[in-house]
Write a structure and sequence with these properties.
462 residues; alpha+beta; Cytochrome Bc1 Complex, Chain D, domain 2; Immunoglobulin-like; two-stranded parallel ribbon; 9 strands
Length: 462
């Protein structure tokens, strides 16, 4: 739930007349979406539940090109809302070239037992995944290699903006910007991207299970659904063995699906791709593809996807083929009518809201600017007097003074590794002896014991 805390925001000097706006008094709904009761899979960790505040910050980070070293690429550059957060390009363009794989659609990524991310599952969670493209030399360029700045340099850049110290304080109750907090916020936004307003969902709500005929389906669509949920031994396609409904995300512990190519490199093979996006929103509401399919973008349409599985041939070089696709277990032998029906059913998994809803849209204006509307009752001039505190001298050698508004506070000092070096209760005017602390960079954290308001600053100890 939203915390009823006071917050303000500095005026953005570069604000133009037509600017993107985020109203902190009226956050868009991320934490209480109308998810159907029959959807039960969820990979959200307990320590990063979706909140309106966290997902709002995640949305801004997701669309902000300042997260790339040359301010040209955002997460949203390769994961576009109009394509269910995928890309129609075979591979996506980064700051230093193109990606090695096709950009995976992100829609309904939350609704799976699988917690790992990327085609090859190299990220242990969506939190882990969130900062990897930022730290990739090709994609966003804060790699710390090949002449790139590193992630700490990005944090310095974000600290220098008008909006991010305010937003991090709004979400986390102090303004400290860290990689973990960036990861959590982006992961919340990505997990919020859900699509459950499809023709399939309208039908599923009218019956008890997927095996029943859906009253809103055509006979072809109902045949396709039957083929999807029936195994090959009984004449079906058995798609549910890996992509069971109603989530239609890939189950855990699968090997590859027989597609072993490398995008833009026909001389190489890749056996490590064992993950896939949801089958939701493979096409847009007009029936157009949301990009080519598979990690190498080698299949142009759903007919080609169905043909791949229907006619799959085992290749000696593929030592990592999933056992469900091997030998007699996979003998589909679908005729053209059945293949067409299966494609028709896959089209019913497309919704409409995911493509147009403001909460998943770009919050920046065309110039890359954004305006934050502060919480009601707090003026733009109140920040320094109400919440900020003064520390001097800084750098300090033996002691520093701290000035706060009248009251009692808990003062904590943390070293650069996050270890607590000192903690005490202080009044508004206080002198702290730091002569015994080693030279280095410290974080001063101050908690107002009356309002529970937290503020922090950096201290350099000479």
């Amino acid at each position: 739930m939203r915390r009823k805390t006071l917050l303000t925001v500095a005026v953005i000097s570069s604000l133009v007349l037509i600017a993107g706006t985020v109203d902190l008094n009226n956050l868009l709904n991320y934490e209480d979406q109308n998810t159907p009761s029959y959807v039960i899979e969820d990979n959200t960790p307990q320590d990063n539940e979706i909140s309106d505040e966290g997902a709002t910050l995640g949305r801004i980070l997701f669309y902000d090109k300042k997260l790339s070293k040359d301010n040209t690429i955002a997460c949203a550059s390769c994961h576009l809302q109009e394509y269910a957060f995928g890309d129609t390009a075979l591979v996506s363009t980064g700051v230093n070239g193109v990606t090695a794989r096709h950009s995976m659609r992100l829609v309904n990524a939350r609704y799976s037992d699988e917690v790992r991310a990327f085609w090859d599952e190299r990220a242990v969670s969506f939190e882990d995944q969130a900062s990897q493209p930022i730290q990739d030399h090709v994609e966003m360029g804060y790699s710390g290699t090949s002449g790139d700045a590193d992630f700490e340099d990005l944090i310095v850049e974000l600290e220098a903006t008008d909006i991010y110290p305010v937003l991090f304080e709004f979400v986390f109750e102090d303004s400290t910007i860290t990689e973990e907090r960036i990861q959590k916020s982006i992961a919340q936004f990505v997990r919020s991207m859900e699509s459950f307003d499809s023709k399939y969902d309208i039908g599923r709500a009218q019956v008890n299970n997927d095996q029943m005929s859906f009253p809103n389906f055509t006979s072809e669509e109902n045949l396709g659904k039957q083929l999807f949920f029936t195994g090959p031994p009984m004449g079906g396609a058995g798609c549910m063995r890996c992509h069971d409904g109603p989530e239609f995300t890939l189950i855990t512990n699968t090997d590859n699906n027989g597609v072993i190519g490398v995008a833009n490199d026909t001389s190489s093979i890749d056996l490590t791709n064992t993950h896939s996006p949801s089958l939701r929103d493979l096409v847009n509401p007009n029936g157009e593809m949301n990009g080519p399919f598979m990690h190498d973008g080698s299949l142009d349409d759903l007919e080609a996807v169905v043909d791949h599985y229907n006619d799959l041939e085992e290749v000696a070089a593929n030592t990592n083929l999933d056992f469900r696709l091997a030998g007699a277990m996979h003998a589909l032998d679908l005729n053209q009518t059945e293949k067409d029906a299966l494609v028709a059913f896959l089209h019913t998994l497309t919704g409409s809201d995911i493509y147009t809803n403001e909460k998943w849209s770009d919050p920046f204006d065309e110039q890359g600017d954004i305006e934050l509307i502060p919480l009601e009752g707090v003026g733009n001039q109140d920040l320094e007097s109400a919440y900020a505190f003064k520390v001097f001298p800084n750098p300090a050698t033996t002691r520093f003074k701290i000035e706060l508004k009248e009251g009692f506070y808990q003062l904590e000092i943390f070293d650069s590794n996050g270890a607590k070096a000192k903690s005490r209760i202080i009044k508004s005017q206080h002198t702290e002896d730091v002569s015994e602390l080693p030279s280095g960079i410290y974080t001063i954290r101050v908690l107002n014991l009356s309002t529970q308001r937290v503020s922090s600053q950096t201290l350099i100890k000479d």
